Amino acid sequence: MPKPAVMRQMPQIAHVDVNCFYASAERAFDPSLEGRPLIVLSNNDGCAVTRSPEAKALGIKTGDPWFKLAPRAKEWGLVAKSSNYELYGDISARVMELLGRHSAWLEVYSIDEAFLGVKGDAEQLLDLGRRIKETVRRHVGVPVCVGIAPTKTLAKLCNKWAKNNPAFGGVCHWDSVSAAVRESLLARLSVEEIWGIAGRLTRRLNVLGIFTVLDLVNADPVVIRDKFSVVMMRTVLELRGTPCIPMEEERIGRDQLIFSRSFSTPVATVEGLRQVLSIYGQQASARLSKHGLQAKVLTAFAATSPFRHHEQAYPSVCVSLPMPTADPLLLTKAAHALLPQVRDGLQYAKAGLMLTDLRPTANQPPLEPFENRHEERGIGPLLEDVSRRFGRGSIGLGHAGIRTGLDWTMKRGMQSPRYTTHWDELPLVKAA
Ligand SMILES: [Mg+2]
Q1: I need a labelling partner for 197 at 20 to 30 A (CA). Which of 73, 171, 238, 274 fits?
Q2: How many A from CA of 24 to the centre of ligand 1?
Q3: Rounded to two decimals, what is the model's pTM?
Q4: How many CB atoms lie within 10 A of CB 341?
Protein backbone atom coordinates (compact mmCIF):
# COMPACT_ATOMS: atom_id res chain seq x y z
CA MET A 1 0.00 0.00 0.00
CA PRO A 2 1.47 3.38 -0.89
CA LYS A 3 2.37 5.48 2.09
CA PRO A 4 0.56 8.81 2.43
CA ALA A 5 2.65 11.62 1.04
CA VAL A 6 4.58 13.41 3.73
CA MET A 7 3.95 17.12 3.59
CA ARG A 8 7.42 18.58 3.64
CA GLN A 9 7.74 22.27 4.14
CA MET A 10 9.89 23.68 1.40
CA PRO A 11 12.09 26.57 2.41
CA GLN A 12 10.81 29.90 1.16
CA ILE A 13 12.41 33.26 0.64
CA ALA A 14 11.42 36.48 2.36
CA HIS A 15 12.37 39.74 0.69
CA VAL A 16 12.46 42.67 3.10
CA ASP A 17 12.76 46.19 1.72
CA VAL A 18 12.63 49.54 3.51
CA ASN A 19 10.05 51.86 1.93
CA CYS A 20 11.79 54.92 0.38
CA PHE A 21 14.84 54.19 2.50
CA TYR A 22 16.71 57.51 2.64
CA ALA A 23 13.50 59.48 3.16
CA SER A 24 12.34 57.05 5.87
CA ALA A 25 15.72 57.25 7.63
CA GLU A 26 15.34 61.05 7.75
CA ARG A 27 11.79 60.74 9.06
CA ALA A 28 12.82 58.29 11.78
CA PHE A 29 14.51 61.19 13.57
CA ASP A 30 12.33 64.07 12.46
CA PRO A 31 8.66 63.13 12.72
CA SER A 32 7.68 66.59 11.41
CA LEU A 33 8.69 65.26 7.97
CA GLU A 34 5.95 62.61 8.17
CA GLY A 35 3.27 63.16 5.54
CA ARG A 36 5.21 65.96 3.80
CA PRO A 37 6.77 65.74 0.35
CA LEU A 38 10.42 64.94 1.03
CA ILE A 39 13.37 64.33 -1.26
CA VAL A 40 16.98 63.36 -0.52
CA LEU A 41 19.60 64.90 -2.79
CA SER A 42 22.71 63.36 -4.32
CA ASN A 43 26.21 64.51 -3.34
CA ASN A 44 26.71 68.25 -3.70
CA ASP A 45 22.94 68.70 -3.43
CA GLY A 46 22.72 67.92 -7.14
CA CYS A 47 19.50 66.06 -7.84
CA ALA A 48 16.74 64.04 -6.18
CA VAL A 49 17.77 60.43 -5.45
CA THR A 50 14.92 59.41 -3.13
CA ARG A 51 11.35 60.68 -3.10
CA SER A 52 8.66 60.15 -0.51
CA PRO A 53 5.27 59.10 -1.95
CA GLU A 54 4.07 62.70 -1.43
CA ALA A 55 7.01 63.97 -3.52
CA LYS A 56 6.23 61.39 -6.22
CA ALA A 57 2.63 62.63 -6.24
CA LEU A 58 3.95 66.11 -7.08
CA GLY A 59 5.42 64.62 -10.24
CA ILE A 60 9.04 64.87 -9.05
CA LYS A 61 11.25 62.31 -10.79
CA THR A 62 14.44 60.63 -9.62
CA GLY A 63 17.28 62.67 -11.09
CA ASP A 64 15.37 65.99 -11.19
CA PRO A 65 17.99 68.68 -10.46
CA TRP A 66 17.50 70.58 -7.24
CA PHE A 67 18.08 74.00 -8.82
CA LYS A 68 14.95 73.42 -10.90
CA LEU A 69 12.85 72.26 -7.93
CA ALA A 70 14.09 74.80 -5.39
CA PRO A 71 12.13 77.82 -6.68
CA ARG A 72 8.82 75.95 -6.20
CA ALA A 73 9.73 74.10 -2.99
CA LYS A 74 8.04 76.60 -0.70
CA GLU A 75 4.80 76.63 -2.64
CA TRP A 76 4.74 72.80 -2.63
CA GLY A 77 5.82 72.45 1.00
CA LEU A 78 8.67 70.31 -0.35
CA VAL A 79 11.53 69.50 2.02
CA ALA A 80 14.95 68.60 0.59
CA LYS A 81 17.71 66.92 2.59
CA SER A 82 21.37 66.53 1.69
CA SER A 83 22.37 62.88 1.62
CA ASN A 84 23.67 61.65 4.97
CA TYR A 85 25.26 58.29 4.18
CA GLU A 86 26.63 57.90 7.66
CA LEU A 87 23.10 57.99 9.07
CA TYR A 88 21.78 55.67 6.32
CA GLY A 89 24.66 53.19 6.78
CA ASP A 90 24.03 53.02 10.49
CA ILE A 91 20.24 52.61 10.12
CA SER A 92 20.90 49.90 7.50
CA ALA A 93 23.23 48.03 9.87
CA ARG A 94 20.54 48.13 12.56
CA VAL A 95 17.87 46.82 10.19
CA MET A 96 20.14 43.99 8.98
CA GLU A 97 21.03 43.12 12.55
CA LEU A 98 17.35 42.68 13.39
CA LEU A 99 16.73 40.63 10.24
CA GLY A 100 19.68 38.38 11.10
CA ARG A 101 17.78 37.34 14.22
CA HIS A 102 15.08 35.78 12.05
CA SER A 103 17.23 33.61 9.81
CA ALA A 104 20.79 32.33 9.44
CA TRP A 105 20.30 32.55 5.70
CA LEU A 106 20.50 36.30 5.29
CA GLU A 107 21.66 37.91 2.09
CA VAL A 108 22.15 41.65 2.40
CA TYR A 109 21.12 42.61 -1.12
CA SER A 110 21.48 46.36 -0.91
CA ILE A 111 21.62 49.10 1.69
CA ASP A 112 17.90 48.65 2.36
CA GLU A 113 17.00 45.20 1.04
CA ALA A 114 17.69 41.66 2.16
CA PHE A 115 16.65 38.11 1.31
CA LEU A 116 16.04 35.68 4.18
CA GLY A 117 15.57 31.94 4.03
CA VAL A 118 12.39 31.11 5.99
CA LYS A 119 10.30 28.03 6.79
CA GLY A 120 6.81 27.29 8.00
CA ASP A 121 3.21 26.92 6.90
CA ALA A 122 1.27 29.80 5.36
CA GLU A 123 0.07 31.11 8.69
CA GLN A 124 3.49 30.93 10.31
CA LEU A 125 5.11 32.69 7.37
CA LEU A 126 2.57 35.51 7.33
CA ASP A 127 3.04 35.81 11.06
CA LEU A 128 6.81 35.98 10.66
CA GLY A 129 6.47 38.67 7.99
CA ARG A 130 4.28 40.78 10.24
CA ARG A 131 6.67 40.26 13.16
CA ILE A 132 9.64 41.41 11.05
CA LYS A 133 7.72 44.49 9.90
CA GLU A 134 6.65 45.34 13.42
CA THR A 135 10.11 44.77 14.99
CA VAL A 136 11.94 46.94 12.46
CA ARG A 137 9.35 49.71 12.83
CA ARG A 138 9.53 49.60 16.62
CA HIS A 139 13.28 49.19 17.10
CA VAL A 140 14.69 51.20 14.20
CA GLY A 141 11.74 53.40 13.26
CA VAL A 142 11.62 52.78 9.52
CA PRO A 143 8.73 51.13 7.60
CA VAL A 144 9.44 47.93 5.67
CA CYS A 145 7.37 45.68 3.44
CA VAL A 146 7.85 41.92 3.25
CA GLY A 147 7.28 39.59 0.30
CA ILE A 148 7.45 35.83 0.88
CA ALA A 149 7.53 33.27 -1.94
CA PRO A 150 9.25 30.09 -3.16
CA THR A 151 11.76 32.07 -5.31
CA LYS A 152 13.66 35.33 -5.10
CA THR A 153 11.96 36.81 -8.17
CA LEU A 154 8.50 36.06 -6.76
CA ALA A 155 9.50 37.31 -3.30
CA LYS A 156 10.52 40.63 -4.87
CA LEU A 157 7.26 40.70 -6.79
CA CYS A 158 5.24 40.01 -3.63
CA ASN A 159 7.09 42.84 -1.92
CA LYS A 160 5.99 45.18 -4.70
CA TRP A 161 2.40 44.04 -4.24
CA ALA A 162 2.70 44.51 -0.48
CA LYS A 163 3.89 48.08 -1.08
CA ASN A 164 1.30 49.04 -3.66
CA ASN A 165 -1.83 47.31 -2.35
CA PRO A 166 -2.88 48.48 1.12
CA ALA A 167 -5.06 45.37 1.42
CA PHE A 168 -1.93 43.28 2.09
CA GLY A 169 -1.00 45.36 5.13
CA GLY A 170 2.65 45.44 4.08
CA VAL A 171 3.15 41.66 4.02
CA CYS A 172 2.39 39.50 1.00
CA HIS A 173 2.86 35.72 0.89
CA TRP A 174 2.62 34.20 -2.59
CA ASP A 175 0.94 30.95 -1.53
CA SER A 176 -1.64 32.81 0.56
CA VAL A 177 -2.89 34.83 -2.39
CA SER A 178 -5.63 33.01 -4.32
CA ALA A 179 -4.77 31.89 -7.86
CA ALA A 180 -7.43 34.18 -9.32
CA VAL A 181 -6.11 37.26 -7.53
CA ARG A 182 -2.51 36.36 -8.47
CA GLU A 183 -3.46 36.06 -12.10
CA SER A 184 -5.28 39.38 -12.19
CA LEU A 185 -2.37 41.14 -10.43
CA LEU A 186 0.17 39.55 -12.81
CA ALA A 187 -1.91 40.63 -15.79
CA ARG A 188 -1.85 44.22 -14.56
CA LEU A 189 1.91 44.37 -14.07
CA SER A 190 4.16 45.34 -16.98
CA VAL A 191 7.20 43.08 -17.59
CA GLU A 192 9.59 45.92 -16.90
CA GLU A 193 8.48 45.79 -13.26
CA ILE A 194 10.20 42.43 -12.90
CA TRP A 195 13.57 42.15 -11.20
CA GLY A 196 16.34 42.18 -13.81
CA ILE A 197 14.26 43.27 -16.80
CA ALA A 198 15.35 46.70 -17.96
CA GLY A 199 13.99 48.98 -20.67
CA ARG A 200 15.85 47.49 -23.63
CA LEU A 201 14.71 43.95 -22.81
CA THR A 202 11.15 45.21 -22.30
CA ARG A 203 11.04 46.52 -25.87
CA ARG A 204 12.34 43.22 -27.23
CA LEU A 205 9.76 41.29 -25.20
CA ASN A 206 7.00 43.60 -26.44
CA VAL A 207 7.94 42.74 -30.01
CA LEU A 208 7.14 39.10 -29.16
CA GLY A 209 3.75 40.13 -27.80
CA ILE A 210 4.88 39.84 -24.17
CA PHE A 211 3.67 42.91 -22.32
CA THR A 212 2.54 41.81 -18.86
CA VAL A 213 4.17 39.57 -16.29
CA LEU A 214 1.39 37.06 -16.95
CA ASP A 215 2.42 36.96 -20.64
CA LEU A 216 5.99 36.17 -19.52
CA VAL A 217 4.87 33.45 -17.09
CA ASN A 218 2.99 31.79 -19.95
CA ALA A 219 5.88 32.09 -22.42
CA ASP A 220 7.87 28.99 -23.39
CA PRO A 221 11.11 29.05 -21.32
CA VAL A 222 13.08 27.38 -24.12
CA VAL A 223 11.95 29.91 -26.71
CA ILE A 224 12.85 32.65 -24.25
CA ARG A 225 16.31 31.14 -23.79
CA ASP A 226 16.89 30.97 -27.54
CA LYS A 227 15.63 34.49 -28.22
CA PHE A 228 17.22 36.09 -25.14
CA SER A 229 19.50 34.29 -22.71
CA VAL A 230 19.73 31.75 -19.96
CA VAL A 231 19.34 34.61 -17.51
CA MET A 232 15.92 35.48 -18.96
CA MET A 233 14.86 31.83 -18.93
CA ARG A 234 15.85 31.74 -15.28
CA THR A 235 13.49 34.65 -14.66
CA VAL A 236 10.61 32.79 -16.35
CA LEU A 237 11.28 29.66 -14.28
CA GLU A 238 11.52 31.73 -11.09
CA LEU A 239 8.16 33.34 -11.92
CA ARG A 240 6.74 29.82 -12.24
CA GLY A 241 8.02 28.94 -8.77
CA THR A 242 11.28 27.09 -9.55
CA PRO A 243 14.18 28.57 -7.56
CA CYS A 244 17.09 29.33 -9.94
CA ILE A 245 18.89 32.31 -8.43
CA PRO A 246 21.29 31.24 -5.70
CA MET A 247 22.43 33.23 -2.72
CA GLU A 248 24.98 35.83 -3.71
CA GLU A 249 27.62 37.14 -1.41
CA GLU A 250 29.13 39.95 -3.35
CA ARG A 251 27.49 42.74 -5.24
CA ILE A 252 28.37 46.14 -6.52
CA GLY A 253 25.46 48.46 -7.19
CA ARG A 254 25.00 52.09 -8.09
CA ASP A 255 25.51 53.31 -4.57
CA GLN A 256 27.03 50.48 -2.58
CA LEU A 257 29.40 47.54 -2.55
CA ILE A 258 28.47 44.57 -0.42
CA PHE A 259 30.91 41.90 0.52
CA SER A 260 29.94 39.12 2.89
CA ARG A 261 30.60 35.44 3.41
CA SER A 262 29.41 32.57 5.55
CA PHE A 263 32.33 30.64 7.04
CA SER A 264 32.73 26.92 6.44
CA THR A 265 33.70 26.53 10.09
CA PRO A 266 32.73 29.05 12.76
CA VAL A 267 35.27 31.65 13.86
CA ALA A 268 35.38 31.84 17.66
CA THR A 269 38.13 34.33 18.48
CA VAL A 270 38.67 38.07 18.15
CA GLU A 271 41.98 37.31 16.42
CA GLY A 272 40.24 35.06 13.91
CA LEU A 273 37.72 37.74 13.09
CA ARG A 274 40.48 40.37 12.82
CA GLN A 275 42.03 38.20 10.13
CA VAL A 276 38.72 37.74 8.32
CA LEU A 277 38.00 41.49 8.34
CA SER A 278 41.53 42.22 7.08
CA ILE A 279 41.02 39.91 4.13
CA TYR A 280 37.58 41.37 3.37
CA GLY A 281 39.00 44.89 3.65
CA GLN A 282 41.59 44.09 1.03
CA GLN A 283 39.15 42.30 -1.24
CA ALA A 284 36.63 45.13 -1.00
CA SER A 285 39.43 47.59 -1.80
CA ALA A 286 40.33 45.60 -4.91
CA ARG A 287 36.66 45.58 -6.00
CA LEU A 288 36.37 49.35 -5.57
CA SER A 289 39.58 49.96 -7.54
CA LYS A 290 38.40 47.68 -10.31
CA HIS A 291 35.28 49.80 -10.72
CA GLY A 292 37.15 53.10 -10.33
CA LEU A 293 35.33 53.95 -7.11
CA GLN A 294 36.09 55.21 -3.63
CA ALA A 295 33.91 54.90 -0.53
CA LYS A 296 33.28 57.33 2.28
CA VAL A 297 31.31 55.13 4.68
CA LEU A 298 32.02 51.55 5.75
CA THR A 299 29.72 49.24 7.68
CA ALA A 300 31.16 46.04 9.15
CA PHE A 301 29.02 43.28 10.59
CA ALA A 302 29.21 39.73 11.89
CA ALA A 303 26.67 37.17 13.02
CA THR A 304 26.55 33.94 14.95
CA SER A 305 24.48 31.11 13.51
CA PRO A 306 20.97 30.99 14.97
CA PHE A 307 20.84 27.26 14.19
CA ARG A 308 23.31 26.48 16.92
CA HIS A 309 22.22 26.26 20.50
CA HIS A 310 24.49 28.79 22.06
CA GLU A 311 24.58 32.47 22.76
CA GLN A 312 23.89 34.62 19.73
CA ALA A 313 25.25 37.99 18.70
CA TYR A 314 24.96 40.29 15.69
CA PRO A 315 27.53 43.05 16.13
CA SER A 316 27.73 45.82 13.55
CA VAL A 317 29.47 49.16 13.26
CA CYS A 318 29.27 52.08 10.84
CA VAL A 319 32.43 54.10 10.25
CA SER A 320 32.68 57.42 8.42
CA LEU A 321 36.06 57.39 6.67
CA PRO A 322 38.12 60.59 6.93
CA MET A 323 38.09 60.87 3.13
CA PRO A 324 36.72 58.87 0.20
CA THR A 325 39.12 56.00 -0.29
CA ALA A 326 39.75 52.60 -1.82
CA ASP A 327 42.94 52.19 0.19
CA PRO A 328 43.18 48.68 1.66
CA LEU A 329 44.91 49.84 4.83
CA LEU A 330 42.30 52.48 5.58
CA LEU A 331 39.42 50.13 4.80
CA THR A 332 40.89 47.34 6.90
CA LYS A 333 41.51 49.69 9.81
CA ALA A 334 37.91 50.90 9.57
CA ALA A 335 36.58 47.32 9.44
CA HIS A 336 38.53 46.55 12.62
CA ALA A 337 36.27 49.02 14.47
CA LEU A 338 33.93 46.04 14.78
CA LEU A 339 36.41 44.11 16.95
CA PRO A 340 35.64 45.75 20.32
CA GLN A 341 32.11 44.33 19.92
CA VAL A 342 33.38 40.81 19.16
CA ARG A 343 33.69 38.34 22.03
CA ASP A 344 36.08 35.41 22.31
CA GLY A 345 34.19 32.14 22.59
CA LEU A 346 31.10 33.04 20.55
CA GLN A 347 30.74 31.04 17.33
CA TYR A 348 30.61 33.57 14.49
CA ALA A 349 29.17 32.09 11.28
CA LYS A 350 29.47 35.03 8.92
CA ALA A 351 30.84 38.52 8.53
CA GLY A 352 30.70 41.21 5.90
CA LEU A 353 31.46 44.73 4.81
CA MET A 354 29.18 47.23 3.14
CA LEU A 355 30.69 50.30 1.50
CA THR A 356 28.42 53.23 0.75
CA ASP A 357 28.62 56.85 -0.34
CA LEU A 358 30.61 55.71 -3.39
CA ARG A 359 32.19 58.25 -5.72
CA PRO A 360 34.29 57.88 -8.83
CA THR A 361 38.01 58.02 -8.15
CA ALA A 362 39.51 61.40 -9.06
CA ASN A 363 41.10 61.48 -12.53
CA GLN A 364 44.57 62.08 -11.20
CA PRO A 365 45.92 59.35 -8.94
CA PRO A 366 45.35 60.20 -5.27
CA LEU A 367 48.38 61.00 -3.18
CA GLU A 368 48.04 57.85 -1.16
CA PRO A 369 51.64 57.62 0.03
CA PHE A 370 51.09 60.93 1.76
CA GLU A 371 47.74 59.93 3.18
CA ASN A 372 49.15 56.79 4.66
CA ARG A 373 52.13 58.53 6.19
CA HIS A 374 49.79 60.98 7.84
CA GLU A 375 47.59 58.14 8.96
CA GLU A 376 50.50 56.52 10.79
CA ARG A 377 51.23 59.72 12.64
CA GLY A 378 47.62 59.91 13.75
CA ILE A 379 46.99 63.02 11.68
CA GLY A 380 43.99 61.45 9.98
CA PRO A 381 42.06 61.04 13.23
CA LEU A 382 43.19 64.49 14.36
CA LEU A 383 41.78 66.04 11.17
CA GLU A 384 38.54 64.12 11.66
CA ASP A 385 38.40 65.37 15.22
CA VAL A 386 39.01 68.99 14.30
CA SER A 387 36.52 68.97 11.46
CA ARG A 388 33.98 67.19 13.61
CA ARG A 389 34.33 69.85 16.29
CA PHE A 390 34.64 72.93 14.08
CA GLY A 391 32.75 71.79 11.03
CA ARG A 392 33.76 70.43 7.67
CA GLY A 393 35.99 72.85 5.79
CA SER A 394 37.75 74.08 8.93
CA ILE A 395 40.95 72.17 8.19
CA GLY A 396 42.71 70.45 5.29
CA LEU A 397 45.97 68.58 4.93
CA GLY A 398 48.44 70.30 2.60
CA HIS A 399 48.06 69.20 -1.00
CA ALA A 400 46.30 66.06 0.10
CA GLY A 401 43.78 68.24 1.85
CA ILE A 402 43.06 70.06 -1.36
CA ARG A 403 43.21 66.95 -3.48
CA THR A 404 40.92 64.80 -1.37
CA GLY A 405 39.17 67.72 0.26
CA LEU A 406 36.09 67.20 -1.90
CA ASP A 407 34.06 66.34 1.11
CA TRP A 408 35.15 69.40 3.00
CA THR A 409 34.06 71.61 0.19
CA MET A 410 31.01 69.57 -0.73
CA LYS A 411 27.72 71.36 -0.51
CA ARG A 412 25.64 69.75 2.16
CA GLY A 413 23.58 72.67 3.26
CA MET A 414 20.51 70.66 4.13
CA GLN A 415 22.03 67.63 5.82
CA SER A 416 20.37 66.28 8.91
CA PRO A 417 22.48 65.47 11.99
CA ARG A 418 24.24 62.09 12.11
CA TYR A 419 21.85 61.17 14.91
CA THR A 420 23.18 57.72 15.66
CA THR A 421 26.94 57.94 15.21
CA HIS A 422 28.09 61.28 16.70
CA TRP A 423 27.71 62.19 20.36
CA ASP A 424 27.23 65.87 19.64
CA GLU A 425 24.52 65.19 17.08
CA LEU A 426 22.30 62.91 19.15
CA PRO A 427 18.61 63.75 18.89
CA LEU A 428 17.35 65.62 21.94
CA VAL A 429 14.08 64.79 23.62
CA LYS A 430 12.43 67.64 25.44
CA ALA A 431 10.16 66.68 28.31
CA ALA A 432 7.06 68.84 28.39
MG1 LIG B 1 13.61 50.28 -0.60
Answers
A1: 171
A2: 9
A3: 0.74
A4: 16
